[in-house]
Amino acid sequence: MTEARPLTPGIAVEEPAQETEINLYIASQWQLMWWRFRRHKLALIGGTVTLIIYLIALFVEFLAPTDPNAYSVRYTYAPPQRLHFIDRTDKGIRIHPYVYGYKVKVDKVALRRTFVIDKTKKYPVRFFVKGTPYKLWGLIEMKTHLIGPVDPEAPMYLLGADRMGRDMLSRMIYGTRVSMSIGLVGVALSLILGILLGGISGYYGGSIDTLIQRIIEFLRSIPTIPLWLGLGAALPPNWPPLRVYFGITVILSLIGWTGLARVVRGRFLSLREEDFVLAARLDGSSELRIILRHMVPSFLSHIIASITLSIPSMILSETALSFLGLGLRPPVVSWGVLLQEAQNVRSVATAPWLLIPGIAVVVAVLALNFLGDGLRDAADPYA
After folding, report:
1. What sign does the CA torsion over 199, 204, 208, 213 have?
2. Residue ranges, CATH 1.10.3720.10, the chain
């Protein structure tokens, strides 16, 4: 416990304030960033939501109630079911999760069938229930799901079903892994291209700088959407889903590195004349080592903020390409592929829950933007 140290009779100076000021001088750059970041409430919320989304992407097999490709023609466009917990019976009140069944009615005007919740049928639901076998991360064989019906044949569509009677909740959860990972992989490739080309441009200057900058200006002058469509259409339609996934990632990376390269070039132009760079040259360090070990770490916090702000654009790019049918294709499940079901106005009017993957895209993009804004403010030494 810190004691007050009197300087003159009747006057005492509290040391906690002095200790706080001293800690500010001896704190590392990462500590200062964390102290600034935790004052940004929206960034904390965005970071928490982002962490939850990536945890969902990591354990999709366990969290999904059923196989995302399992279909049932009996429940085409089945509406969402509400999960109930209080069961009132003649014997009293019982607390357990369950869903009501469906009853089919025929609309004589529109000449189509509609689903109505049938409260005479109750299907019990359990947590950590045995269900469809799967391999967690493709390695561990398991049967346990977080939630699911006790009877495997019982209908449970908490977010409704699509035109083939597939569970939208399971497909959305599986789509989280593809849509969120393509942002990470695409940004990682863009980071490598942006640092290397931007670093070379700013470090050497001259004709190399001119050539790289003209390439960047050419790529940035092309309208983005037609460029995406052209490159996406260039992928062979007979490619397997994994190769298409890799191709889309490469396409997004080839387009997305230009902004980061400009930032890196500007920083390198100001850092290449600094004393620590000259000392590294005199010490015999190679130029690649000077770039990667001395110059890049000096503004690593800015790179982290730029990466965080680039991931949402990657996610939106994949969603747009897949929605237009030029990106990922079934049987791959992503949010963009799921939104293809919502292209038909009649389908949306019949089943508005097909637009729910769009809500997932909005939440993920907002969370990542809030997180990126917080990191950018925390990394700013003049904040």
Report:
1. positive
2. 172-379
pTM, full prediction: 0.79
> How distant, in Å, are the alpha carbons of 266, 283, 291, 351 from that of 286?
21, 9, 9, 62
Are 81 and 156 contacting, i.e. CB atoms less than 8 angstroms apart? yes
pLDDT (tens digit per residue) in 151-192: 888 888 999 898 888 999 999 999 999 888 887 888 888 888
Contacts of 84 (CB under 8 A, 6+ apart): 97, 98, 99, 100
d(CA 276, CA 290): 10
**Pairing state of beta strands 11-13 and 84-89?**
unpaired
C-alpha atoms less than 13 angstroms from C-alpha of 287 in its C-beta half-sphere: 9
| C-alpha–C-alpha distance, residues 189 and 183, integer Å | 10
Residue 186 zone, left/alpha/beta (φ > 0; ψ -120 to 50; rest): alpha
Closest alpha carbon to 339 in 64, 183, 231, 327:
327
Cβ contacts of residue 91 below 8 Å, gap of 6+?
A: none
CA atoms within 13 A on the CB side of 135: 3
CATH 1.10.3720.10 for domain 172-379 = yes
Owner of token pair 């000392």: 279
25 pLDDT band, cuts 50/70/90, is: low
Question: What does the pLDDT look like over 50-102, one tens digit per residue?
Answer: 999 999 999 999 999 998 888 888 888 888 989 888 887 777 788 888 899 88
SS3 category, 117: strand
Pairing label, strands 92-107, 112-136: antiparallel
C-alpha 4/C-alpha 230 separation (Å) is 72
Q: Which residues contact 357 (CB under 8 A, 6 or more apart)?
A: 172, 175, 335, 338, 339
